Amino acid sequence: MEFLLKIVSLLFLVIDSSEGTTMANFDQYSNLNYPNSQPTQSESNTSIERTELIDFSSNTTNSKHYDRGPYFDISASRNVTALVEKTANLNCRIRNLMNRTVSWIRHRDLHLLTVSEATYTSDQRFTCINNKQTGDWTLKVKYAQQRDSGIYECQVSTTPPVGYTMMLSVVEPITTIIGGPDLYIDTGSTVNLTCIVKFLPEPPPVVHWTHNNEEINYDSPRGGVSVITEKGDITTSYLLIQRARKADTGVYTCSPSNANPQSINVHVLSGEQPAAIQKGIMTTKSHGLILFSLFICYCLTVY
Description:
Layout: H1 2-37, H2 41-60, H3 64-67, E1 71-72, E2 79-83, E3 88-95, E4 102-106, E5 111-115, E6 118-119, E7 126-131, E8 136-141, E9 150-156, E10 162-171, E11 174-177, E12 182-186, E13 191-198, E14 207-211, E15 214-215, E16 225-230, E17 235-241, E18 250-256, E19 262-269, H4 275-302
Parallel strand pairs: 2-10, 12-19
Antiparallel strand pairs: 1-3, 3-8, 4-5, 4-9, 5-6, 7-8, 9-10, 11-13, 13-17, 14-15, 14-18, 16-17, 18-19
């Protein structure tokens, strides 16, 4: 009996020692794995910083420019002025167009004029030209008339469509010479011809003067002939001819380079009076005699 008790005690000792070794090994392995399962504070910060860097990096891949779609370059003026019978150019510059279509529409009657570079109106004066390098879509109106004035829209086929409106003003310049159509000057006097040009989109680069359809030579041996031109919203050109003589008689024409010409007849007199002036003098005298006669009659009646 005592022998059996010793054997049972030995079995319990073996079991206890085995369990202790197993727990010890388990704790050992657990301690080895712990750092991987529970990160330290520095490792946690590194992980967070890496996440923020990735988020920031994704934001720097900025697709906003591409997502916004086509947009208009609005640096140019919306107001365009053109001359009658000249070509009017309405320029529309578009960025990031991609595969969209550009159309020009006239607001007055909502008429579709062009689609891309094709004309969609029976009026063949309207055409659209595309410059692929600059992104310009230019509506050209040939032989512009005053009835072409109004609002035009450059439209892009987005959903919904986006548009850019422009105002076209077609004007006809007016050229006048003060004192026309006939001017009478005494011999030896100074001829001062004043030419005024209005309603121009820009001042004329040059104003030409001619005498009997021949260009005036300001450096001729005759001398005393000069021109002064003041440019602005209203352009004024003065032709001065000193010591007028009979040879200076004739037709003088003022021709702005971007406006219609105007002429005047200059008569240099040698003491004689033209029929028009004589007629005016006779008419004035007749009126004076009539008034004087009426005054005499009134006085006789009163007294």
